Amino acid sequence: MLQxxxxxxxxxxxxxxxxxxxxxxxxxAAPGGPLEVYLANPNVRPEDIERLRVALGLDRPLTExxxxxxxxxxxxxxxxxxTDGRPVLDRLLERLPATLELIASAVVVAGLVALPLGxxxxxxxxxxxxxxxxxxxxxxxxxxVFWVGLLLQxxxxxxxxxxxxxxxxSYGDGTLPDRLSHLIMPAIVLAAVxxxxxxxxxxxxxxxxxxxxxxxxxxxxxxxERSVVWRHALRNALLPFVTVLMMDAAIMITGxxxxxxxxxWPGLGSLFTEALARRDYTVLMAFLMMTSTAVVFLNLAAxxxxxALDPRVRVR
Amino acid sequence: xxxxxxxxATWVAGAVLLVLAAAAAAAPLLTPYLPDGIxxxxxxxxxxxxxxxxxxxxxxxVLTRTLFGARISLVIGLLAAAVTAMVGVTIGAVSGxxxxxxxxxxxxxxxxxxxxxxxPLLMIAAxxxxxxxxxxxxxxxxVGWMETAxxxxxxxxxxxxxxxxxxxxxxxMQPARVVVRHLLPAAAPAAVVAAxxxxxxxxxxxxxxxxxxxxxxxxxPSLGNMLYQAQTTMSTEPWLAFFPGAFIFLTxxxxxxVGADLGARDLR
Lengths: 316, 268
Known about the structure:
heterodimer; A: mainly alpha; B: mainly alpha; 73% helix; elongated
C-alpha cells in the first residue's frame, strides 16, 4: 500500500513540472511581458519600468527566470502582488477560507440532491423519478452558471426579498443565520452542475449494482428492501463515486470563479477576477499554480482512497 | 438516460436545435430591426408585440440582438469544436499508434491540461492576447482537446490488436495508410460524439468569457456579453438578462441530448 502511494506520488512530480511550464509560458507570452499594463500607463515613466524590470529579474534569460520562479513557488515565496505590493501567498490564503466554505457547502447540496435522485432513478427505470433524474441531469450540465446566478438573484433577492443578493455577511463577521442566508444561493448555483453529473453517474452505477447476484441473494435471504438497497448496493455503487468527486475538482474551481464573481463572494475566485481586471500577473500565476496543484493532489488522493477502499483493485 | 434516448426526445431536441440555428442564420431576414439600431424613443421597453423580447437602454431590439449574438456564439461553438476535434484526433491517434516515449509525453501533457482549471486559463490567455473572434475560436478549441485525445487513443489501442489491422500490416501496408484507411474510420464514431459534446462546452465557455468581458467585445453582440451588460440593470429590466441566457441554455441542452443519443447508438 505504502509503495503504491509512493509510486503514484512520484508520478505527480513530472505532471506538476509540465503544468508549471505551461503556466509560465502563458504569462510570458504577453506581447509586453508581465509589465504590459505599465507600458500602457502614461503616468509610469520608461525609466521606472526599466527599474522594475531589473528589480523583478525580468531582464534575465527566460530559463533562469523560470527556475527562480519555480524554486520560489516550491519554498512558498510566491512574489508580490503588482497592485498592492503585498505577498501573493498572503493574498491567496486570506481568501481561501471563503472558497472552501462555499465549495464544501456546494458538495453537500449536490450530494443531497444527487443521492436520492440517482438511487431511486436506478431502482425504477422509466418511472417518473427516473425521468426527473434524466431531465435534471441534462438541464444541469447545460445551464450557463452565471445566468442561473442572475436569475436566482432576480427572483429571491430582488422580487421576493427573501435572501441577500451578494456578499458573505451583512456587516463584520455576521451572525450564523445571516451567514447562512448569504451562503444559500451561491452554494446552490455552484452545486447545480455537480448535482446533475453525480445523479447521472450514481444512477448508472446503482443500475449495475442492483442487477448483481449478491443483491439477488440478499433479497432471497429475506433482507428487507431498504437494507438491500441502502446498505448493500449503495455501498458498492459509491466506491467509484469517490473518484468522480475528486476528479470534479477542476470543474468545481471553474464554477467557483463564476459563482463568486456573480455573488461578490470574497473568495479565491473573485480575487482571480479582480487580479485579471488589473493584469496582476503574479497573483494570476499563483492562482493557476495553486489550483492546478490542488487538482493534481486531489486526483492522487482519489486513486489512493479508491485503492484503500476496494481490495479488488489491489490484486494486480 | 434510456428514457431520453428514446427516439422522440432526440427528434424534439434535434428539431428545436435546427429552429434555433436557422433563426440565428436567417436573423437579417427575420427581424425588421438592426442589431445596433438605436431608438431613443423606445428605451428600456418591456416585451411587447413590436419588441417581443423588449429593448435595452439604447432602445435596441433585444430579440434582434439575441439572434445576431447567437450567430457569433454558434459559429464560435462549431469552429472551436472543429479545432478541438482536429487537435484531439491527431494527438490521440499519434499517442495510440506510436506508443513508447512519445505516447508518454503526450499523455502527461493531456493530464497536465486536464488539471489546470479551464475557464481561468482561457480568461488569462484572452486577457493577454485580447483576441479577435478567430483567435477566440482557436483559444477555446485549444483548451478542449484532451477528452477527444483520450477517447481516440483508447480506440486506437484496442483497434490495433484486431486481426484485420494485423493482416493489413502483415501484407506490408505502410503505417500511415493503416492509420488512414483502417484505424481512423473505425475511431470516427467515438470522435464524432466527443466533437458534438465539445460544441456545447465551447458555447458555454464563450458565453462565460464574454460575460467576464474578455470574450467577444461590444458593440458586437454575443449572448455572453449581452448578459454582462444586463447585469447592472437586471432589477429594472429583467428581460435583458432572461432571453440571451435562455437561448444559450436551450442550444446547449439540445446539443447535449442529440450528442448523448449519438453516443448510445452504434454508428458503425
